[in-house]
């Protein structure tokens, strides 16, 4: 089988198409013939050498968290799926033995990690992590769901967002940002989003963004958000200076959920403003397998159409990462085999 492997941690030029033996499933495992895999900034950080958990000793490395395809074969003890089933993988990997695995939710696991290996023609996976797909859910749409949409949906649940709420999403044109805007709309909420690109904001308004703010200046953004209203919730995948920005515009008793730090690892926070106004600052990582199952149902009933920016063949995986690196896209970039 062919794989799009990272052979050099220097950026998109470090992707090579290699041949590897097709895996065989062991007990509890399944082999999936991958039809579509979406890429995420997590993959790009590894490829750029920015993720210190990976180095040249791990090469060649096959990344890819989010895959959808058809079950080729299953190992002993597998009962949930069968060869021929259409599936999407929940990329969560948990120990199954810690307090948090027993009590839930699963993404609190003390040993929480993520699957890698979707950028290939076939992938060996934990069969219990496969979610079956209805016939009317396409492989490309399914492959877009696990990381960006699962993360956004879990954040919205943590923020307790419901109909008529006002939700503020700084950086609304990235993967999690787009998913947050779409899913907030599904829940009946009103949305405010920002971007440095007016062209991207125009696309976001077509997707469902209610109030677009073309700025990266925190003072300008704060003023523009206040002109719209007082957010009930903020979904923050940027961190840095956007944490205090979000807290500053948030209503009394409002909730900010943080899932990333691409704009800065550290944030300076007005602590009295946080506790005197009973605001909540909540950390969140990925989502749960039931979240993914809910998302599949939303796609199946037509409530959600994941935004796909572009589809690339496996041999052009490097070009997909180049588009992500250049921040050219709105929505998901999907690789097909």
From TrEMBL:
Q: Which SUPFAM superfamilies match?
A: GroES-like, NAD(P)-binding Rossmann-fold domains
Q: What is the superkingdom listed in this entry's lineage?
A: Archaea
InterPro entries per the record? ADH-like_C, ADH-like_N, ER, GroES-like_sf, NAD(P)-bd_dom_sf, Zinc-ADH_QOR/CCCR
One Pfam family from the UniProt entry?
ADH_N
Annotated GO molecular function terms are:
adenyl nucleotide binding; anion binding; oxidoreductase activity, acting on the CH-OH group of donors, NAD or NADP as acceptor
Q: Does the keyword section mention Methyltransferase?
A: no
Sorted UniProt keywords: NADP
Return one Gene Ontology term, BP aspect: small molecule metabolic process
What the entry lists under SMART domains is as follows:
PKS_ER
List each copy of the Enoyl reductase (ER) domain by range. 11-335
Name this polypeptide is given: Zinc-binding dehydrogenase
Organism this protein belongs to: Haloferax marinum
